Amino acid sequence: MKPNRRKQGNEGEDLACTFLERAGYQILTRNYRFERGEVDVVAKDGEEIVFAEVKARHSNAFGQPEDAVDETKQAQIADVAEGYLSEHDLEGATVRFDVVAISYKDGIPQIEHIKDAF
Questions:
Q1: How many Å apart are CA 4 and CA 115, to the nearest integer?
Q2: What is the total count of domains within the chain?
Q3: Would 44 disulfide with which of 12, 26, 55, 95, CB 3.0-4.6 Å?
Q4: pLDDT value of position 60
């Protein structure tokens, strides 16, 4: 990933984590990697483990941010989630997959939290 894109990605993840924490979530880890996949945020919402993918867009030229979480990306995140649950002895835990979509309007981030996105 190009340095500028990585910086923008980190900025989006920072915004998402702040948003989730304000909503009462406990952030467990960020950028969790398992094998060849990654999930942006692993959090706890009550008793649920939440695997959240963060997508930010500065324009709509390539569609809405959440559109980037296609079936292939969903399958990858599910595989990473299985790895996380196994590594942390959490098999059988209640899990949820969310998307935090960030669109910028006049430079101001607009955050949409899509629970149970897939």
A1: 29
A2: 1
A3: 26
A4: 79
Read off the CATH number of the domain in which 28 is found: 3.40.1350.10
The residue range of the domain holding 69 is 3-114
**pLDDT confidence band for 10 (50 / 70 / 90):** confident
C-alpha to C-alpha distances, 88 to 12, 23, 29, 81, nearest whole angstrom: 26, 24, 12, 11
Burial class (CB in 10 A: 0-12, 13-18, 19+), 107: exposed
- Tokens, residue 98: 């969310």
pLDDT tens per residue, range 41-88: 999 999 999 999 999 988 877 789 998 999 999 999 999 999 999 999
